[in-house]
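Subject: for your reference before the review

Hello V.,

The reviewers asked for a structural picture of the protein, and I figured it would be easier to keep everything in one thread rather than splitting it across files. Below is the amino acid sequence we used in the manuscript, unchanged from the supplementary table.
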Amino acid sequence: MNLKDLIAPERYNLTSEIDQYDSDKTALLWENDSGEKESISYHDLIERSKQFAHALSKLGIGKGDKIMAVVPRIIDAYVIYLGALRSGVAVIPGSEMLRSADISYRINQGEAKAIIAYFEYSGQIDQIQEEMPTLKYKISAGGQTKGWLSMDELICHASSDFTTVPTHRDDMAFLTYTSGTTGTPKGVVHTHAWAYAHLRIAPSRWLDVHAGDTVWATAGPGWQKWVWSPFLSVLGKGVTGFIYFGRFHPEKQLQLLQDYQINVLCCTPTEYRLMAKVDHLGDYDLSHLRAACSAGEALNRGVMDTFKQTFHIQLRDGYGQTESTLLIGTMVDTEIRPGSMGQPVINDFITVVDEDGDPVPKGVIGNIAVRRDFPALSKGYYKQPDLYKSSVVGNYFLTGDRAARDKDNYFWFHGRRDDVIISSGYTIGPVEVEDALLKHPAVKDCAVVASPHPVRGNIVKAFIILKEGFTGNRERVKELQDFVKNETAPYKYPREIEFVKDLPKTVSGKIKRSALRDLEIERAKEKGLVVNETR
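And here is what came back from the structure prediction:
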């Protein structure tokens, strides 16, 4: 693959990739945990998105504006994204697990003109007390919400006669927020050109999507991985996407893979780990499953062996970031080296460098780096140029992860450059959790780190110093966990809490999280847990 293959035409709107498949072919199959089912054709999906684009224009929302979407795994999530992008409007993805403070921050920092939320999530938005000067409209999806506009009614009264806005390839398409060690989420800017590059890398070279496939990528809206796979890699290839709107249960996931004869699966290592532990795993018929990919965290050798022995399926690993697309992975028809991240999508653009930005020799651990002219790299952090600049060394953007390359240019992971925690595929900034804990009247000080876990890869662990007069016991642990769940997104809560009298700190008074991480790794080894320190 050459650089020129990834560069979009000057005038380009990513929805053109989907519009070429306008037909009666099924675009999406949907099922929820009650067994209700829906489907929609490419033609009907495109028409509905044009109606939504028309509705936005009638509200005065158009090119250059931004909207926030907080919706679950429903067909209307695709309608919202397609309609907005067709209008030249950028989308701010928002997970349903976000709390009021998380949402208001994104609306204000991202200058969103409207928020579209699933009706069951409207309470979090209505609880926001602070001013949101740019927000003009609240739109409810999937049901009615008092005081909100209805997405269904807006579409019902809108025409599908809408001409897609002729966006420039450098116009913003997505503003996705990612956690970091600073405690302040960063708004990652992706343009329409980013989508063009992504579509020429991930769907065919990694996911192995073929015409006629049914693809299940399990990521939920609100995350950049949803934009990667369930949205772009499915609709941009004209295949059928499967959506399940329900809680994860390994037996249910296996049954759905069988019933819908899924050809391509993309999910987290945690999902694969739990499926691999199901009793009588071989009773499920996954003979239609041709390709299975994993991203988000380490992929265990034992899980890979189980799927290969049981289903003759080789799980393939992939690595990327919110700031990019797939950077490194086990591509189609390449040798799999268990434990390795795989090889770069383009050798000249992804490498390993030292702290000065100079490439290091093979076998030497350094920083995973992306050349700044890589077409599928973010254009920066919205209104935070200093944060972006701090990640740049010379001609490279540093991903924050460390690795070494072998003689065949396979990458081997060696941990994060910063303190961000990856648990079950979720990226969690420790400062966000620490800030929530410190609001509790019993907490004097705390530090949050990753602790190795056999299923989740890592869990969030908090070391807490209590104020005088407060006792550390099981009831206190539960109290603090529930408190964090109410203060921030529930997946960020500390699954383990240890009460301590002091915390390791540097001479300048900064908490040495690295010392606590090392302690957790040593404890895990003493318990007999296999700790994969190289990924």
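For the response letter, the relevant points are probably these. The two ends are 27 Å apart (CA to CA). The chain has a mean pLDDT of 93.

Happy to draft the paragraph if you're swamped.

O.
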